[in-house]
Specification:
single chain; 145 residues; alpha/beta; Rossmann fold; 41% helix; globular
């Protein structure tokens, strides 16, 4: 894991970590849109997919289950959330997808992902917390053509 976040200067997505997955599932109807997002991304062999604002790794789990011949890179600024994602993603149903988790913000994604072979980027529930246009331009610069 690499770290680009010097201090906690963000607001966690949920008041208590144990609530995060539950609140996300209930309040956002995640089972619907997460499955649709996975289908839209169309993970296929050789893909390197970055999840910006990966949270506890739920979307990364779905991506790994849909195609075990991919590599995943998750970025999130919250250390306890990254650790929860690590535990959640470790040995997903026997699937051995290479997964890297990085501590950083959406604004750091261009730098953190540059030269890493990323060809697809997924992000959910993070757009209310960042400046979309500036960040998205940086994200696009780090993806393969």
């Amino acid at each position: 894991m690499f770290d680009s976040t010097p201090a906690k200067d963000y607001t966690p997505a949920a008041p208590r970590l144990w609530m995060y997955d539950f609140l996300c599932a209930v309040l956002t109807k995640a089972s619907r849109w997460r499955a649709a997002l996975t289908r839209q991304i169309e993970p296929s062999a050789g893909d390197v997919i970055a999840d910006i604002g990966c949270g506890t790794g739920t979307q990364m789990q779905l991506l790994a289950r849909s195609c075990s011949a991919i590599r995943l890179i998750g970025i999130d600024p919250d250390p306890p959330v990254i650790e929860r994602a690590r535990r959640k993603l470790d040995g997903i149903d026997g699937i051995q997808v290479p997964i890297e988790l990085a501590r950083g913000y959406a604004r750091d994604a261009g730098r953190l992902l540059s030269g890493r072979g990323v060809n697809k980027i997924v992000s959910s529930l993070v757009f209310t917390r960042c400046r979309q246009r500036k960040n998205m331009r940086a994200w696009l610069r780090c993806t393969l053509p």
